[in-house]
């Protein structure tokens, strides 16, 4: 991670965010299920915005054959990062910062099906 990206505000790296009600709506479920996704580490987020509401990156939601869903490979990667001692904001910064070896950010690589490459990088962080 370059020094500049290490200092970039998360908002600049992530772009679009979803509140839990927005996440629930995007997934066609209810807010308690969206909270459950956070509790089970399927997604992570931070408190942000004017009213400091908890929000998750919109990039965590993908379109599948069965409709919108949380990026399937995200949870394992989040667990690896957590095991390496990353806080949720640090994990988000890592996921959304371009990596030379991937040629894109880890979250973009996960969305493109590069789970093994991303997990190798995450394991190397530990």
Low-confidence stretches: 1-5
Main β-sheet description: 3 strands, antiparallel
In what order do the strands lie side by side in the largest sheet? 1-3-2
Number of strands: 5
How big is the Rg?
14 Å
End-to-end Cα distance, whole Å, is 15 Å
Strand content: 15-25%
Oligomer: single chain
Count of discrete domains:
1
DSSP summary: helix tally: 8
**Topology as H/E string?**
HHEHHEEEEHHHH
Instruction: Provide mean pLDDT, rounded.
Output: 92
**Derived structural class:** alpha+beta
The coarse silhouette is globular
Q: What helical percentage do the residues reach?
A: 40-55%
GO molecular function, one term: DNA binding
Keywords: DNA-binding
Protein name: Rv2175c family DNA-binding protein
Domain DNA-binding protein Rv2175c wHTH: 16-60
Task: Explain what this protein looks like in three dimensions.
This protein has one domain (10-124). The model is unreliable at 1-5 (pLDDT under 50). The chain has helices spanning 3-7, 10-14, 20-27, 31-39, 74-83, 88-96, 106-111, 115-124, and strands at 17-19, 46-48, 53-57, 61-64, 67-70. The chain has a three-stranded antiparallel β-sheet with strand order 1-3-2. The protein has eight helices and five strands, in the order ααβααββββαααα. It is of the alpha+beta class. Keywords: DNA-binding. Residues 16-60 form the DNA-binding protein Rv2175c wHTH domain. This is Rv2175c family DNA-binding protein.
């Amino acid at each position: 991670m370059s020094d500049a990206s290490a200092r970039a505000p998360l908002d600049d790296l992530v772009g679009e965010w979803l509140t839990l009600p927005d996440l629930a709506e995007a997934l066609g479920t209810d807010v308690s299920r969206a909270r459950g996704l956070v509790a089970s580490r399927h997604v992570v987020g931070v408190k942000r915005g004017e009213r400091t509401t908890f929000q998750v990156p919109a990039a965590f939601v993908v379109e599948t054959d069965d409709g919108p869903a949380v990026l399937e490979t995200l949870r394992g990667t989040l667990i690896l990062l957590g095991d390496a001692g990353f806080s949720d904001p640090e994990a988000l910064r890592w996921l959304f910062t371009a990596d030379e070896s991937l040629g894109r950010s880890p979250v973009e690589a996960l969305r493109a099906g590069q789970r093994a490459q991303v997990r190798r990088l995450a394991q190397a962080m530990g």
